[in-house]
Amino acid sequence: MFIDYAKIYVKAGKGGDGAVAFRREKYVPKGGPAGGNGGKGGDVIFVADSNLGTLLDFKYNRKYMAEDGQPGGNSLKDGRNGKDIIIKVPVGTIIKDEESGKVLCDLNENGKQYVAAKGGKGGKGNSNFATPTNQTPRYAEKGKPGEEKNIILELKLIADVGLVGFPNAGKSTLISTVSAARPKIADYPFTTLEPNLGIVRYKEYDSFTIADIPGIIEGAHEGKGLGLKFLRHIERTKILLIMVEAISEDYQRDFNILLNELNNYSKILAGKKKIFGISKADLLTHDQIEKVKSLTLNNHNEKIIVFSAVSGYGMDELLDTLWTELKD
To answer: What is the CATH code of the structural domain delimited by 5-155?
Structure first.
């Protein structure tokens, strides 16, 4: 199950209390203060792990608490620090503060870490409070509480190319043809219900990643269909392949609808490099294909690539174009 959003509660450990103690040695009837310091509370640390691909674990476990520091002991012995709690998340996870909505960290690299909640400082033992006028203090410092907060986790896939199109535009067929990804494919809308990520082998030694999200419908940026939930997964892509199927009655209108949804969703998507493609060319005759190739989109000088993932027509040109744009 692919889960890309979760709310959790994290709490760092409390610092251990300082100790009130005195030296108790033979022939020393009035020993000085000997209370040790409390240990520091454990931190809550997030770590990006490339072996993970979903936030599914956080659906069942929503509370994460680090260990408290141990109190100080006699004979100036300090308490042990509390153990940190390490929370592994997929690469591409964004950590937000639920209350403010502020982005705290973007874990966009494998191994990158973020301390979401710091453990409390341990209290000082009474040995720290001795003065010339008070050589036997009978008080110590309490440990400080650890930080706690409600966290939002959002996963954004990291890919080179993002596929954008209406339901049934052939995105799933394309990604299953050019990579080892195996999304569900059927001849009805919204077959794809979650993002798919595939690695495309280009030529002999090169490769790039491609992301397929559920089909976009008009009004997706307002929450219609499944688009709003998954559009964030293509915000990290370097380029977008905008796909319209060959049997469309109006290519210009369909491209404009898709572009409008991207522009209204975020400035990030609006500013990305876009390649325009007509899919399912196997449904057209040779003359129809040549006619489509001669089309130009209003306000766009980009070339339209006509291709079919089923027959293989135009696939070399498509992959060459994607690779060239990625290299640029």
So the answer is: 2.70.210.12
> Considering only the top CATH level, what class is 161-327?
alpha beta
Binding residues for Mg(2+): 172, 192
Is the Cα torsion angle 246, 251, 254, 259 positive or negative in sign?
Answer: positive
Rounded to 10 degrees, the C-alpha dihedral 285/286/287/288 comes to 50
What pLDDT band is residue 189 in, cutting at 50, 70 and 90?
A: very low
318 and 277 in contact (C-beta within 8 Å)? yes
| DSSP code at position 120 | P
Instruction: For the chain, give every domain's residue range.
Output: 5-155, 161-327
Binding residues: 165-172, 190-194, 212-215, 279-282, 308-310
The binding site for GTP comprises 165-172, 190-194, 212-215, 279-282, 308-310
Distance CA 14, CA 9 (A): 16
pTM, entire model: 0.75
